[in-house]
Structure formats: C-alpha cells, structure tokens
Amino acid sequence: MQRVTLLPLDFRYANVIFKLSSDPHVKNALGIKVETIEDTKAFLLFAIEEERQKKSLSRVIVNEENEIIGLTTLKHINYEKKQSHIGSWLGYPY
C-alpha cells in the first residue's frame, strides 16, 4: 500500500467500521466495547458531534482499492498552540 485517502465520517460507513472494529484483535487492542452495529453508530454520532464542536477530527482511512481499512483521529486539539494527539487503527486484515 502506497497511498491512502482520508474521508469524513459518515453513517453509510457504519457496517464496515463495525466489522473492522469488532474483530477481537482490534477491539482488544483499542480497549473498546463493540457488541452491536448500534455501538458503532453511537461512536459515529459522538465523533461527528466532537468535530462539530471542534474538539476532535476523525477520518475514515481508505486504501488504493477504495476499501475502508481503519480510522484516524486528532484529539485534544489546541488551536492556540497548534497541537493535538493523534490516534489511528487499521483493521486486522490490513
């Protein structure tokens, strides 16, 4: 893989994000509780609201074959200091 694209979060990606994040390798590494698609939809709603409030910025990671392969997020954004924390994860197959 040489190139990825970052896309804004969207509920139409919920099923793929759920599938990738519910894999035990990913779920356990992230320490998240993903039991149902509703958990993923709740996360998306939360992340979209956080972005609206300018607290964080999440993007879906898409590979060269246009497959969603994970997520990346800027957290704790400090606009004055131009600083943030970054967290990313890729689905286990990737």
TrEMBL record:
GO molecular function: acyltransferase activity, transferring groups other than amino-acyl groups
All copies of domain N-acetyltransferase, residue ranges: 3-91
Pfam families per the UniProt record, alphabetical: Acetyltransf_3
SUPFAM superfamilies (alphabetical): Acyl-CoA N-acyltransferases (Nat)
Superkingdom in the source lineage: Bacteria
Name this polypeptide is given: N-acetyltransferase domain-containing protein
Organism (species): Bacillus pacificus
Native organism taxonomy: Bacteria, Bacillati, Bacillota, Bacilli, Bacillales
